[in-house]
Design goal:
This protein has about 180 residues and is an alpha+beta fold. The chain is built from 4 helices and 3 strands, in the order H-H-H-E-E-H-E. The chain has a 3-stranded antiparallel beta sheet with strand order 1-2-3, covered by helices on one side. Helix 2 crosses helix 3. It is elongated, with a radius of gyration of 25 Å.
């Protein structure tokens, strides 16, 4: 049998067409389904962390958590730990999210017009290295930023959601507030 007649014979066969069509459609369908499910989990986590950050930022605004410019390093570490605990306790129902995925950055500014928050810088392990913790004083202008570093399972989802090449997928929550006079 010649090659041409073998190809013609294969083109006339219809017995496996449904299997081949399913195989062509199944892979993109399954990938899309996983991407939708994972995006839903990310949005659920985003909502939980956003609520937790707003609640913890209120404690800074009202003066319950203070680590201003004159605070000793041990007191700043204690206030930061209390702030982290407040946020982490409020995200208990999160899926695939632990406090190890969160980085906290609290900065004080002289005016609303002078607010300039630097982009996160990551080390080799994916940790944010340029964070600060300064809750300001009475009537101070403060930015509270929590960076959630997500590690999607679905291939290509990070780039679809805006992560740059070689950068982790980050979701940032920022609250800008003026401390109450306390």
């Amino acid at each position: 049998m010649s090659t041409a007649s073998l190809c013609a014979s294969l083109l006339r066969q219809r017995s496996g067409s449904a299997t081949v069509e399913f195989a062509l459609v199944a892979i993109p369908f399954i990938a899309l389904t996983f991407a939708l499910l994972e995006t839903s989990v990310l949005m659920f986590n985003q909502s939980l962390v956003q609520g937790a950050v707003l609640s913890a930022a209120r404690q800074i605004r009202t003066g319950q958590l203070q680590a201003g410019p004159g605070t000793s390093p041990s007191q700043q570490a204690s206030v930061l730990s209390t702030f982290q605990t407040a946020v982490c306790n409020d995200i208990g129902a999160a899926i695939n999210l632990t406090c190890a995925n969160l980085f906290f950055d609290v900065r004080t500014f002289a005016s609303f017009g002078s607010i300039s928050i630097p982009a996160p810088i990551f080390d080799g392990q994916g940790n944010v290295t340029n964070t600060s913790f300064n809750t300001g004083g009475s009537a101070g202008i403060v930015t509270v930023r929590v960076i959630y570093v997500a590690t999607p399972i679905t291939p290509g989802l990070s780039s679809l959601l805006g992560a740059g090449a070689g950068q982790p997928l980050t979701i940032t929550y920022t609250v800008v507030l003026r401390n109450e006079p306390f």
